[in-house]
Amino acid sequence: MKFSIEKEDQKSHARAGVIHTDHGKINTPVFMPVGTAGTVKAVHQRELEQDIQAQIILGNTYHLFLRPGLETIEAAGGLHRFNGWNKPMLTDSGGYQVFSLAAKRKINSNGVRFQSHVDGTRYTFTPEYVIEVQRKIGADIIMAFDECTPYPCTYDYARKSMELTHDWLARCIDTFAATEPHYGHAQELFPIVQGSTYPDLRQKSAEKIARYECKGNAIGGLSVGEPDEKMYEMTDLVCRLLPVERPRYLMGVGTPANMLESIKLGVDMFDCVMPTRNARNGMLFTEKGIMNIKNEKWKNDFSSIDGDLPCFINDYYSKAYLRHLIISKEILGAQIASIHNLRFYLWLMEQARAHILKGDFSSWVGPMIKKVSARV
């Protein structure tokens, strides 16, 4: 994997770059749709590629490990062949899901013993095993095993969790170096900065991770309930310490405004379930602001859903029709809303990149943050 910076904004830390992988290139800044169980919910791969124009999607190690299981994924020839996505993919380590979904989990220095939320079966994830699992899944970018601290948490808890994450990272890197990809394409390992909202811990973690000189770095443990201002403070601190020449991935973020603010701080990569999860509940993200399509005022509005957004759904569907589908709990409503939100997220990243390259990002981004944060 290679990363090159094409242009940097003169009045912020925003930059436009390109990540090269064996499954193709990724223009940054980039939003990565989340395909938890090997699928972006309610969206076909063809729609992801042609209509949404996604460059890279995510899979989740915990969910894929449980269903369909490694045997099926390996028999298919890896996740790319199993789900029919031929562009880059990233898998997270499953650490967050182990801590948030699994029942009766027990953490120690070796790893995590947990009970599946699906059928109650007990498993153990160690750093070594998580790397082995991600090798078998076959994503282009894989994540180190970490513990994601909740918010709020005590300083002592955050410190011990960070130290455990660092110990696990060393074991992940050793295992990664001692193993080979399974399917003929290169994989790269990204470590994850932790430390909750404590500046000294975030600094220590970022400095520790920077020393490994991995091909990219992630910032975890944010967007878990802390105020946006605190998230930006921690992101800014970490971005100033992580290597400039490596892509920076802010995990689990977020709203359109969150992403634009974080691009200003030097973040290159984002993922979040929000555009699809909120879509299924009738929340649409648009250039004019956030829309609750279930509101009565859209009942007889036969204009296109978001006429300014370059997406095929505006040629077919009105606000009134989508409102009807969502309220009626029709599957098509979830599909239309999901495609719209994902296309908007990708369009917003394309616009940010274009303005960085043009040289007027700083004058564009402030007004855009206000627009996308409004309620319509």
TL;DR of this structure?
With 376 residues, the chain is α/β, with parallel strands linked by helices.
Indicate the topology:
Elements: E1 2-8, E2 15-21, E3 24-28, E4 30-33, H1 45-51, E5 57-60, H2 61-66, H3 70-76, H4 79-83, E6 89-92, H5 95-100, E7 103-107, E8 112-115, E9 122-125, H6 127-137, E10 141-143, H7 155-178, E11 188-190, E12 192-193, H8 199-210, E13 217-219, H9 228-239, E14 248-250, H10 256-265, E15 269-272, H11 274-280, E16 283-286, E17 289-292, H12 319-327, H13 331-358, H14 361-373
Parallel strand pairs: 4-15, 5-6, 6-10, 10-11, 12-13, 13-14, 14-15
Antiparallel strand pairs: 1-2, 2-3, 7-8, 8-9, 16-17
Helix pairs in contact: 6-7, 7-8, 8-9, 9-10, 10-14, 11-13, 12-13, 13-14
What does this entry look like structurally?
There is one protein chain. This protein has 376 residues and is an alpha/beta fold. It has two domains: 30-272, TIM Barrel (Alpha-Beta Barrel); 274-365, no CATH class. Helix content is 42%, strand content 19%. It contains 14 helices and 17 strands. The chain has a five-stranded parallel β-sheet. It has a four-stranded parallel β-sheet with strand order 5-6-10-11. Strand 7 (103-107) and strand 8 (112-115) form a beta hairpin. Helix 13 (331-358) runs antiparallel to helix 14. The termini are far apart. 48% of the residues are buried. The mean pLDDT is 96.
